[in-house]
Amino acid sequence: MSKTLIYKFGGASVKDAAALVNLADILRNRLRNNLVIVVSAMGKSTNALEEILRMKLENKDYSINSTNLKDFHLSICRDLFPESHMIFPQIKNYFIQLNHELNKALSAVNYDEFYDRIISFGELVSSRIVMEYLCLQNLLVLWQDARELVVTNSDFRFAKVNWEETKRNCQLQLKPKLAQFPVLTQGFIGRDRQGKTTTLGREGSDFTAAILAACLQAVSVTIWKDVPGVLNADPKRFPSAQLFDELGYAQAAEMTYYGASVIHPKTIKPLANSRIPLFVRSFVDPDLPGTKIHQNAPIQNLAAIILKRDQLLLSFKVTDFTFIEERHISLIYEKLRQLKLSVNMLQTSAISISIVLDTQLFKLQQLISELKGEFEIKYNEGMELVTVLHPQKELLVDLLGEDEIFLEQTTRNTFQAVRKAKIS
Ligand code: ASP
Ligand code: MG
Predict the structure, then answer these.
(1) CA-based nearest residue to 346, from 300, 315, 382
(2) CATH number for the 304-420 domain, one of 3.40.630.30, 3.30.2130.10, 3.40.50.720, 3.40.50.300?
(3) In whole angstroms, what is the distance from residue 235 CA to residue 231 CA?
(4) From ligand 2's centre to the CA of 284, what distance in Å?
(5) Which residue lies with its CA nearest to atom 6 of ligand 1?
(6) Which of 50, 70, 275, 333 might form a disulfide with 95, Cβ 3.0–4.6 angstroms?
(7) Mean pLDDT over all residues of the chain?
(8) pTM value?
(9) Using a 6 Å cutoff on CB, does residue 205 contact ligand 1?
(10) Which segment, 107-121, 273-287, 390-404, is predicted with the most confidence on average?
């Protein structure tokens, strides 16, 4: 029996008709049973769905947005399928269902649950189109609803995996199918015990690939990307970025923690626990080896630069001439936990606490209103968090130039600074 492999294709690898043709080309010689293919929503369609949700929350008319999103999918299909193909009514059907869901009442209380139900349509439509296109190309794959496999708690938008039940589903439902066919499924989505759709956090499809790999005891996971592998900086901003041929799990996990967007941060742990190697390879040059992330990789001392945009710098100043105490920190952290906001950087001084967060403005207002009795709160939007692992002096001078630094921190192997994000 062949060993189980997992392939994951993200939004960029299914963003238009040419991308789907390319994906089929990659699979043509690689398709076999015991292969699981995980696909994301097409291009930026998850962002488009988030925008629709935002408009709905603000009672704005989102009908043009939803029509545009439908047309985006239909127009990709017009380039790939004959006019009479059943994918066209299928897409229309998905959008009828989406609009039906959108018409239901939304409030701040049920927002997260509503969000997951709506946002999952991106993955469902995409996986349906990819499956039909592959079959049209004589590449037979079975379509699997990932929600029947991935069981989670009801922590909507950030659902936690129920490993035991997910493993059972993978072994009992997926494995027998895989023995005969390759299976194509969605990333990012799951289902709670009540049968409600949940999601694993934005960009969570990589994590799904890792979950399925761990539950199926796969021999490897391959994430197909628009970059040649894991680089020591974003090649779009640093053209001279260098490729890592190999990386250890810990080093890769550290890079994702600081914001390297090449792999989702939660992906590494389940793979490391099961010692399953992760390959990051280029869908543009599929014959290149890419990066192998595994147990026995040598330590890399190459400096790595990670830039994280859309950051918010918040400072909390005590107002009553006391100093910062543990109680202040735990008060702030407790509110952050309740709002599901996580801290990317923290610094305390005698009278203030500064934290850096991903920007989520509606939560910010709530945070401020709940803590303004205790602190004087100031914030800066549009910041960028710069992290350099294994930094060298000249590199930092080059990187930061004359930029105004709002907050800075250096530890043995890591340098971090917050500056105003540059427009590029
Ligand atoms: N489509 C989802 C997102 O964009 C999941 C993913 O792409 O990994 O967040
Ligand atoms: Mg995506």
Answers:
(1) 315
(2) 3.30.2130.10
(3) 7
(4) 18
(5) 203
(6) 70
(7) 95
(8) 0.91
(9) yes
(10) 273-287
